[in-house]
Design brief:
Blueprint lengths: L3 E3 L4 E5 L6 E5 L2 H8 L5 E8 L9 E5 L13 E6 L4 H5 L7 E5 L2 E2 L5 H9 L4 E8 L11 H7 L3
Antiparallel strand pairs: 1-4, 2-3, 4-9, 5-6, 6-7, 7-8, 7-9
Keywords: Membrane
GO molecular function, one term: protein kinase binding
Subcellular location: Membrane
Amino acid sequence: VVRRYVGSTPVPSQNTVDGQQSQHTKSPELASDLEDAAVTPIWFDVELHKPTASTGLGLSIAGGQDMEDDQIPIPGIFITRINPGGLADRDGRIQPGDQLMQVNGIDVSSLTHAEAVRILRNAGQDVHLVFTRVPESDYGAESDEPQQRASNGR
């Protein structure tokens, strides 16, 4: 199941970090940063089912509120690698560069790297992920292939 959101449309989230629960709707800082740059991100959901709770998702992340990296222009958690043959690779929708916004309704957009890793590792067998992706065509790329790929969920 893939649902897409264009622009800075808020996504309902539930924050359960540090034992506090609050239901809220959050438009991430990314939205305002990208609006300033005249770039419209695509929001999309990916639901993955792991064979066992301990099975990995087959992806690597970078970033977090505690990380400073010249390669990551804005704060957040980003996909850096999709492991060949892993769950995310077999699904085909997640790409390096996608920003992870939520895991099972938990807002991870402003967490530290360690907190995001902990939430991903403890997500259980059914994992609902929400991402944003900036289409390459918004940067003035000649080809519209990335936009087509995003539209096809690949």
